[in-house]
Specification:
The protein has 5 helices and 6 strands; from the N terminus they run αααββαβαβββ. The protein has helices at residues 3-6, 21-29, 31-35, 73-76, 98-113; strands at 40-50, 59-68, 82-91, 117-121, 126-130, 132-134. The strands form 2 sheets. It has a 4-stranded mixed beta sheet with strand order 3-2-1-6, covered by helices on one side. Strands 4-5 form a two-stranded antiparallel ribbon. β1 (40-50) and β2 (59-68) form a beta hairpin.
């Protein structure tokens, strides 16, 4: 979970989110979060599709995924590291109501931001307070 600290592209190209200025700005703005290298940075991905084909029905399904950006690029987008958090069904997509449907997930992300969650580090054999943020 600390890969993002050790590995950077030497030729100054952004190949991964941890090399971007936004990540560095976040670290500068929230030094207490950045100090604990195992704190988790999450991506929120939403994708919608017509459940029964384009012409069959106006119903659609929207999937909300959470990805972990602390992992190396070779595995962070592998299916076993992408978490399906919500499935939203409805007529023609969630539109204005997406905020209401995302609220339980946002509440959990707020809990992960502050106060965090007590977590066990199996490598160091000790507990620590893990926090997470969405980037």
């Amino acid at each position: 979970m600390t890969w993002h600290v050790r590995c950077h592209d030497e030729n100054k190209k952004i190949a991964y989110p941890s090399e971007a200025k936004a990540w560095q700005h976040f670290d500068h703005t929230y030094p207490n979060f950045a100090f604990e290298l195992k704190n988790v940075r999450l991506g929120l991905c939403i994708d919608g599709f017509s459940s029964f084909g384009q012409s069959a029905s106006p119903y659609s399904s929207w999937l909300v995924f959470v990805t972990v950006y602390n992992l190396p690029p070779s595995i962070c987008m592998k299916p076993k590291y992408i978490f399906l958090s919500l499935i939203i069904f409805g007529l023609q997509g969630p539109r204005k109501n997406i905020n209401v449907m995302l609220q339980p997930l946002i509440d959990e992300l707020k809990q992960l931001w502050a106060p965090g969650v007590k977590t066990y580090d199996s490598f160091k054999h000790q507990n620590y307070n893990m926090r997470a943020t969405r980037v």
